[in-house]
Amino acid sequence: MEIYVYRDYNEWFNENPSETLEGNVEIFRNGTIAIDGTYDYKSYRQILSLDNIFAIVHKMPSGFLAYQREINIYENIDSWKLSEPQVTFEGEICEDQCSDKHITLITTDGFKQIISLSKIFAVSYER
After folding, report:
1. How far apart are CA 96 and CA 31, in angstroms?
2. Under 8 Å CB-to-CB from 56, ≥6 apart: which residues?
3. Over the stretch 49-81, which tens digit does the pLDDT of each residue have?
4. In what order do the strands lie in the sheet with 2-6?
5. What is the pLDDT of residues 92-104, one digit of tens each?
6. Where are the domains of the chain?
7. DSSP letter string, the chain
């Protein structure tokens, strides 16, 4: 599958990835995110720092969302205080795949997004 790596908020917001990789994303219980891929007929596992990138995005199989919730992304404290999110999605938060460093969500258009919490101010969602 294609995996899109966004270096900062603007690349992610404008859907202009820094890098596109082929492989699979795996999230471990401790919050580590690995991308498994093949290059030159050799298998590699890459662990990317979400302190240095903004988001990892990839397409999920269809037909997986039973209930959609509103998910709001606030880039800064002012938008959060005024309750004016920069981005609003319909989808589902994968709480079991989140950590204190990132949040994982699946949008209704079928993309799983792993977003760095050190690069934005807040994410809020219906529970």
Report:
1. 9
2. 3, 4, 5, 6, 25, 33, 35, 48, 50, 113, 114
3. 888 899 999 998 776 666 788 999 999 999 999
4. 19-22, 2-6, 55-59, 111-116, 102-107, 87-93, 69-74, 122-125
5. 998 888 988 999 9
6. 2-125
7. -EEEEESSHHHHHTT--SEEEESEEEE-TTS-EEEEEEETTEEEEEE--TTT-SEEEEEPPSS--SS-EEEEEESSHHHHHTT--SEEEEEEE-GGG--SSEEEEEETTSEEEEEETTSSSEEEE--
What does the block give as tokens for 43? 């298998």
